[in-house]
């Protein structure tokens, strides 16, 4: 990851073009001491367009495109998620951090940002930096698994009262997920936004790349990377922890529980939004709750301090997309209640995965896609 040799001149490619090499003769602006202060001093309006901006950056990383077509790079972006430039990685992680900090100072000196904060291997700096070289899903391969384009990815089986396909005629993971969802819907055991299945399909791609035997270091298991406690809550015995029908059934059950916990407060705060925007925001909150816990999401709506952004965005919702509102609530609380940039990245990645699914000939005309 750190193969380049450190050099004294920092090269930055910015949206407006190529910034000239930066010499060290002039003194850069004094850095801020804490990146959290950048967040605290940010007006709420900076969240306009942030969802699209962050999703664009994550697209480069996830698909190894754009400024991440070369893996050994870091890209820098501001509090609005706007791309500012990139650096080539140095020979070591420490040298790369030095280069990032010099770039941050140079961006502030040139007025590209109004402040900068040095980062380290353990501390976040500003402008924010994201490595292009990250463990990530091979979306193309994940989509193929999800759609059952290889015979080995097809499935059949039983779980609880569910009977799906047959050994003679196995079907795809997508068809299995939709079967479980529709069955539980018909049984009136689900009351979720109509867009939820699409995002759950995206989560399958991001969580496990559609691999049935996925197993994380944190002991999360299966296509939806369910934790031992979640599997226990769904009364799934260890022998069935990787059972794909059981995984989908359990994830839907957890989503329903999260929805039940969130809905009263959500409706009180955002019930006046137009139907489409309200449903989209609620779906994204459910995706976030799956990743970070429903209690943490609920605190964004109820906590005296953490709910201040939500109050603002509920009042000024016409100026923001549903994604902007979600990201705004998280961004303006970064550094509080264990909320971090990974919370934003996860939802953006799931959005990109749903985009990849709905770009396929198999699904683009289905009700599954908008």
Report on this model:
With 370 residues, this protein is mainly alpha-helical. Helices cover 46% and strands 9% of the residues. The protein contains 13 helices and seven strands. The strands form three sheets. It has a three-stranded antiparallel beta sheet with strand order 4-3-5, sandwiched between helices. Strands 1-2 form a two-stranded antiparallel ribbon. Strands 6-7 form a two-stranded antiparallel ribbon. The two termini are 39 Å apart. Mean pLDDT is 91; it is low at 1-25.
The beta-strand count equals: 7
Q: What would the average pLDDT be, to the nearest integer?
A: 91
Q: Strands of the biggest beta sheet: in what spatial order? A: 4-3-5
Q: Gyration radius, to the nearest Å?
A: 22 Å
Query: What class would the helix/strand composition place it in?
Result: mainly alpha
Q: How does the major sheet shape up?
A: 3 strands, antiparallel
- Which band does the percent of strand residues land in? 5-15%
Order of helices and strands: EEHHEEHEHEEHHHHHHHHH
